[in-house]
């Protein structure tokens, strides 16, 4: 471990004289820094997107998985009796932690986004709703459904699974797509750095020739290029991530009354993840350039 | 020090050197001559493993150069000073930095290296242009800078390929004098040239021998040169 730290420090500090052997080439400098910055910017968004969809899936799963609803659609005369029957059934159902009748005011609030604040429930045949929260051990939904059918024929039992599961599946797929996008972005970065390094190596054929003439080992020559491209990649990625984070902070905060949507920006310790992008970029640039340098040097007589 | 045993080399199927054998003892001074295209540069390159013989064996410091890997060749070159006609500098570095390059790649640092550089610059008369870039130098200055670079690591062998090819007679004499001085310090010198006048001029300064490439062979030339 100590050796690795020492090697890393030597690599980062570098040899000023050795570094100067490779002439600065403005075109490849700008190309590499810009490509790394652009890719890091996109990677920051892909990462944030993936984390946000992950949070969304978790939220939908945790918020709704332990809840269910019973809807009583019956005539006004029967509604009250069926409600009491349902409540009696729920009281004797193992695994039910709590249940409550959703009051008229609350129903009005729930319908307000669609029908407006001035809605009067007297004008609409709104069913009675009962919310159930189950214990972590859960209850036997099928058994409850049978009992409800017998005691309150107008009661419709809804575990939310029908519409919740596709949403959770979609959110999880989006999360995977975010990671795939991140992987493609980093792979593209490796390709761009490799091409830039190959271009620089080809442009510096004479430098390589002279360095070999005076007794430079190929690993020494390669290191001069590798260090330069790694540091360029790191610089570009830092700039890209900073720009990406600023853009994330500038995005409007999502949320809403239902709380099912979350903002794209990471929260809490998740902010540390984008900080890894420059390090990953530097590692990619290091290995991409080293591979390109070794291949080029092997091909030269 | 340098030994060729039945060395054959050619380009594109055409043989340039055919089973060439000779040896250069330590501390000797040899001229290598022959018509243009006869293989002088090829032979010099074979000496420091820039080329590998197609057949036969090239031994430098007792080692078969064909048996060395790339790192081995690199270490070997640190003990060989090579001067080319085209000098081969890094044009973005100053003259002093170019001369110091071999010490950089071999990891030498410190006051002694700096002192060696200062002494070398003075010895080859380039103090005034130490901070200049190579493209601004004259032909003679470039050759002296290349010679200084070849010497910074105090190599035992100096291989010079037409170092006087682009300079006037006075500068040729000056370069020859520097090489003769090195030989008197015990360095083995192999100097490729087609300049017979230079070879004759050297006879009064150093005990030298002449290798002539002719008909794909290397011959020890007669005293009539």
Task: Write up what this structure looks like.
The complex is a heterodimer of chains A (301) and B (225). A 4-stranded antiparallel sheet of chain A has the order 2-3-1-4, covered by helices on one side. Chain A has 301 residues and is an alpha+beta fold. In chain A, helix 3 (26-64) runs antiparallel to helix 7 (161-203). The two termini of chain A are 37 Å apart. Chain A is 69% helix and 8% strand. Chain A folds into 2 domains: 2-61 and 165-299, no CATH class; 74-153, no CATH class. Chain B has a domain at 2-79 and 155-220: P-loop containing nucleotide triphosphate hydrolases (Rossmann fold), CATH 3.40.50.300. Helices cover 34% and strands 26% of the residues of chain B. In chain B, the strands form 2 sheets. A 6-stranded mixed sheet of chain B has the order 6-7-8-3-9-10, sandwiched between helices. In chain B, helix 3 (95-105) runs parallel beside helix 5 (139-151). Chain B is globular. Classes of the chains: A alpha+beta (301), B alpha/beta (225).
What are the key terms here?
heterodimer; A: 301 residues; alpha+beta; 2 domains; 4-stranded antiparallel beta sheet; 10 helices; 4 strands; 69% helix; rod-shaped; B: 225 residues; alpha/beta; Rossmann fold; 6-stranded mixed beta sheet; 7 helices; 10 strands; 34% helix; 26% strand; globular
Strand content of chain A: 5-15%
The largest beta-sheet of chain A arranges its strands as 2-3-1-4
Which structural class matches the secondary elements of chain A? alpha+beta
Side by side, the strands of the main sheet of chain B go: 6-7-8-3-9-10
What order do the helices and strands of chain A follow? HHHEHEHEHEHHHH
- CATH structural class of the domain at 2-79 and 155-220 in chain B: Alpha Beta
Radius of gyration of chain B: 17 Å
Number of helices of chain B: 7
| CATH homologous superfamily caption of the domain at 2-79 and 155-220 in chain B | P-loop containing nucleotide triphosphate hydrolases
């Amino acid at each position: 471990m100590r050796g690795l730290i020492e090697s890393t420090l030597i690599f980062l500090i570098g040899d000023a004289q050795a570094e100067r052997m490779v002439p600065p080439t403005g075109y490849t400098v700008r190309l590499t820094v810009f490509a790394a910055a652009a890719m890091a910017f996109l990677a920051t968004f892909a990462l944030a997107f993936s984390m946000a969809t992950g949070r969304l899936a978790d939220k939908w799963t945790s918020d709704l998985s332990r809840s269910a609803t019973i809807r009583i659609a019956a005539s006004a005369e029967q509604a009250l009796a069926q409600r009491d029957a349902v409540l009696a059934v729920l009281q004797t159902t193992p695994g039910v932690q709590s249940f409550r009748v959703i009051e008229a005011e609350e129903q009005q609030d729930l319908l307000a986004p669609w029908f407006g604040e001035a809605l009067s429930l007297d004008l609409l045949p709104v069913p009675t709703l009962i919310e159930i929260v189950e214990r972590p051990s859960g209850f036997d939904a099928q058994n409850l459904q049978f009992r409800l059918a017998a005691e309150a024929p107008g009661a419709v039992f809804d575990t939310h699974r029908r519409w919740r599961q596709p949403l959770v599946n979609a959110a999880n797929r989006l999360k995977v797509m975010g990671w795939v996008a991140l992987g493609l972005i980093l792979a593209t970065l490796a390709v761009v750095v490799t091409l830039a390094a190959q271009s620089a190596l080809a442009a510096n054929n004479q430098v390589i020739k002279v360095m070999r003439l005076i007794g430079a080992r190929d690993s020494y020559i390669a290191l001069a290029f590798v260090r330069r491209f790694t540091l360029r990649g790191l610089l570009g990625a830092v700039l890209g991530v900073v720009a990406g984070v600023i853009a994330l902070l500038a995005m409007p905060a999502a949320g809403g009354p239902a709380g099912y949507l979350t903002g794209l920006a990471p929260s809490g310790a998740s902010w540390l993840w984008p900080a890894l992008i420059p390090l990953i970029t530097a590692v990619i640039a290091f290995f991409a350039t080293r591979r390109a340098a070794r291949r080029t040097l092997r091909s030269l007589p | 020090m340098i030994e060729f045993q039945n060395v054959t080399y050619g380009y594109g199927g055409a043989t340039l050197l055919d089973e060439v054998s000779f040896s250069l003892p330590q501390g000797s001074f040899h001229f290598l001559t022959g018509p243009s295209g006869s293989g002088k540069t090829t032979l010099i390159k074979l000496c420091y493993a820039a080329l590998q013989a197609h057949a036969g064996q090239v031994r430098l410091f007792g080692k078969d150069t064909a048996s060395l890997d790339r790192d081995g060749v690199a270490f070997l070159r640190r003990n060989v000073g090579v001067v080319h006609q085209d000098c081969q500098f890094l044009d973005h570095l100053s003259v002093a930095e170019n001369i110091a390059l071999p010490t950089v790649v071999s990891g030498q640092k410190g006051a002694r290296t700096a002192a060696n550089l200062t002494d070398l610059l003075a010895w080859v008369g380039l103090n005034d242009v130490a901070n200049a870039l190579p493209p601004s130098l004259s032909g003679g200055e470039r050759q002296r800078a290349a010679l200084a670079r070849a010497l910074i690591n105090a190599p035992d062998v100096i291989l010079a390929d037409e170092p006087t090819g682009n300079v006037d007679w006075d500068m040729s004499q000056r370069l020859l004098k520097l090489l003769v001085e090195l030989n008197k310090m015990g360095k083995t010198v192999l100097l490729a040239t087609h300049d017979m006048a230079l070879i004759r001029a050297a006879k009064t300064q150093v005990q030298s021998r002449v290798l002539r490439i002719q008909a794909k062979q290397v011959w020890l030339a007669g005293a009539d040169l």
